[in-house]
Amino acid sequence: MPATPIQRLACALKALRYVERRRLPARAGVGPTAVQRAYSEQAINPVAYIKLCGALGITVSTGESCPARTLGEFDWDAFALGFEVRRRLRKLTLRAAVLETGLSKATLSRLENGRAVSINGIIAVCAFIGTQPEHYCLTPGMCPVKRTDETSGVAA
User: Fold this and answer.
1) To the nearest whole number, what is the mean pLDDT of the chain?
2) Most exposed: 15, 36, 44, 53, by fewest CB within 10 Å?
3) Is the pTM above the cut of 0.90?
4) pLDDT tens digits, residue range 7-34?
5) What DSSP assignment string belongs to the chain?
6) Domain limits, the chain
7) What is the CATH number assigned to the segment(s) 76-136?
């Protein structure tokens, strides 16, 4: 079994026929370059990685077979909230969470602020939270809800 997430994805892509691989970007909602890069075991955007795994019918974390599905955009804010809630419920400082996840403090700080992290970071944090990365994907076509500041009515 391939060791890294991109190697698992590349293995699944190489098992496809050429015609199927050409149709995959439209089915997954990603660009053809992401498929080409993943096929060549080059790093790709973590959201594209998750969408490709969904379209191929493999789990993001382990590469095991699951039903193929179309995934929407990744909700970074919900992911950040899930991490922060889990960390606070366990009464862990950010430094203690660094030791448990194996990620850097900068990565976890970025994540808590709703900013993108690598697919390895997503997988490590999901293991810490106890969920799967697919759970943080919106329904296709749905956009995230913008918070509105109650006092000023300005989008936050």
Assistant:
1) 89
2) 15
3) no
4) 999 999 999 999 999 999 999 999 999 9
5) --SSHHHHHHHHHHTS-HHHHHHHHHHHTS-HHHHHHHHTT----HHHHHHHHHHHTB-TTT--B--------B-HHHHHHHHHHHHHHTT--HHHHHHHH---HHHHHHHHTT----HHHHHHHHHHHT--GGGGBPPTT--PPPPB-TTT--B-
6) 5-56, 76-136
7) 1.10.260.40
Q: Which two tokens stand for residue 141?
A: 């076509």
Question: What's the CA gap between 98 and 122, in Å, rounded?
Answer: 14
